[in-house]
Amino acid sequence: MGLFEKNPNEVLYRGGKKHFAEVIKNTGDGAFLIWKQPEEDFNTNSTLIVMPGEMAIFVNGGNIEEVFENGTYKLSTQNYPFISRLRNAVTGGVSAFNCVVYFVKKADSEEILWGTATPIQARDKYWGIRTDIRARGSYKVHVDNPAMFLQKLIGSNRDFMTQKDLNSFFSNEFQSKIRSTISDAINKMDTELIGLDARLDELSQIVEPVMDGILQEYGLKCRNFNIAALDVDKSKYDNMDNAQMEANKRKMLTGSDRYAMDVLGSNWDKQQAVNIMTNLSNNENASAIGTLGAGMGMGMMAGSVFGGMAGQVRQPMQQPETQQDDPMETLAKLKKMLDAGLIEQDEYDAKKKEILSRI
Questions:
Q1: Among 218, 188, 223, which Cα is nearest to 203's?
Q2: Where do the H-state alpha helices sit in the chain?
Q3: For residues 11 and 204, what is the distance between their CA atoms, to the nearest angstrom?
Q4: 326: which residues sit within 8 A by CB, 6+ positions away?
Q5: Quick one: how many helices (H) and strands (E) in the chain?
Q6: Scanning 128, 164, 172, 342, which has its CA 20 to 30 A from the CA of 99?
Q7: Of the candidates 139, 138, 132, which has an alpha carbon nearest to the alpha carbon of residue 118?
């Protein structure tokens, strides 16, 4: 081993050896949030150049000596040309006065995507049902305290950290906080959960401070946290929609019958009796039907029903009216019923003739 032992780190310098004074500047990838410059143990009075959009952390002798904003600086170390090699001789070429520079990205990171690994369970208080929700979105980070970021997240055993590394580091903690915060906010809502997209900004503002609280402990700040989508399981809502559509359909049909009765008034029952009697008289098996009914013990009931119908047919179709309806309005309603297929043409003509005869 020679007296002036060469530091192994010198192979990382330009030309493979240390110079009297170095120029230290960032050579890392732009995607790195933090990057350890490979030239270590540089000589005193070396020049540090910090570009816009980044900061530099000068670590000297194992201590963070200074954090530099963009600009040009002279660095003072305990390494001196020739003397440092003499000192290194007794340590196998390893400098006893270690110094290194970390470069930190100052600008906001690119978007980091997130999504819930499992559905969030929520209860729709408006409908009283339980459903599942999946959430997804993105956020950005900003290195707010470079020294804390280096000490708590990087330490001395890593040379760099990317956004992907950061997302992996916080993955479980972020998942837990995002799920619990969104679940708490949604379960406090009294409105139905269909249409949550209108409240994405509101929910994002609720979650961002929670995420920021986690990141601040590591010298980071959360930027632009957003929930891009809340996908609600709509299967139960679809079932309710189908049931509601069926109920509305039945209501409309019932309303049509009531409308017809309102227009025809007391003549509705009489007209229906005429139609039944006419149908029976035109039916070749009408006598057989009567015989079958009597044979089954239904003779008295059938007689009562048909007798009632016959009595209605024999009654005059026109009853004394205590209140005269507007003939024009009644005729207009009858025409709508005819067009809608609620009454036959002969029924319309008979009623029209009756109304016109009273004018």
A1: 188
A2: 83-88, 146-149, 163-187, 200-216, 235-264, 267-281, 286-295, 299-314, 327-340, 345-357
A3: 49
A4: none
A5: 10, 12
A6: 164
A7: 132
Whether the pLDDT of residue 287 is over 70: the answer is: no
Q: What is the pLDDT of residue 344?
A: 83
Residues listed for the chain: 359
Instruction: Please report, in angstroms and rounded to a whole number, the separation of the first and last CA atoms in the chain.
Output: 133
Looking only at Cα atoms, what is the longest distance across the chain?
Answer: 138
CA 273, CA 348: separation in Å to the nearest integer? Answer: 16
* Rounded-to-integer distance, Cα 274 and Cα 294, Å: 23
Q: Is the dihedral of CA 173, 174, 176, 177 positive or negative?
A: positive
Beta bridge partners of 112: 139
Among 116-130, 204-218, 234-248, the range with the most confident prediction by mean pLDDT is: 204-218
Kind plus residue range of the DSSP H or E element containing 329: helix 327-340
Report the candidate in 319, 322, 313, 312 with the shortest Cα–Cα distance to residue 354: 319
Which range has the top average pLDDT, 103-112, 248-257, 322-331? Answer: 103-112
CB atoms within 10 A of CB 7: 21
Q: What is the pTM of this model?
A: 0.55
The three-class DSSP label of residue 60 is: strand
**pLDDT tens per residue, range 79-105:** 544 434 434 444 444 455 778 899 999
Task: Give dist(CA 55, CA 105) in Å, integer.
Answer: 7
- Per-residue pLDDT of 146-177, as tens digits, reads 999 888 877 656 777 887 788 788 888 888 89
Give the tokens for residue 115. 């999504």
With vertex at residue 271, the alpha carbon angle to CA 270 and CA 273, rounded to the nearest 5 degrees, is 65
Containing H/E element for 298? none
Please name the residue that has the structure tokens 């029976």.
280
Encoding tokens for residue 73? 């600086």
Q: Residue 264 phi/psi, 5° resolution?
A: -80, -20
